[in-house]
Amino acid sequence: MEKPEYHFFVCCSFRGTEIKGKCIRKDSMELIPYLAEELADRGLNAMVSSMGCLNRCDDGPVVIVYPQSYWYGGVKGEDEIDEILDALEEGRAAEKYLIG
User: How far is the C-alpha of 99 from the C-alpha of 61, rounded, in Å?
Assistant: First the structure.
């Protein structure tokens, strides 16, 4: 596999083996298939990974983009994903969702 240009991490609220945070309760897992499909449709060299709790529960669902180190909060669905990917394709952050 070619090294991806972008790596998206979606918070899925696990702390150890238990669901402890809020992102998964805010349907963060449902973001993953759409994000992966949209990345492929746009031809972006990227991968998507789920990850444990990021301890930013009040900002959730949280999505991180590397290597840019963009931390996005309030990523609730397709519209937010589209805005984030549009900005990424333009070489900028989607300021509206940045946290940190």
Answer: 11
pLDDT 10s digits, 58-75: 999 999 999 999 999 999
R_g of the chain, CA atoms, integer Å:
13
pLDDT of 18-35, one tens digit each? Answer: 667 789 989 999 999 999
Q: Which of 6, 3, 1, 18 is nearest to 49 (CA)?
A: 6
Q: What is the pLDDT of residue 39?
A: 98
Torsion sign across C-alpha atoms 96, 65, 50, 29:
positive
Closest alpha carbon to 93 in 6, 4, 2? 6
3-state secondary structure of 40: helix
The two counts, helices (H) then strands (E), for the chain are 2, 6
Q: What is the CATH number of domain 6-97?
A: 3.40.30.10
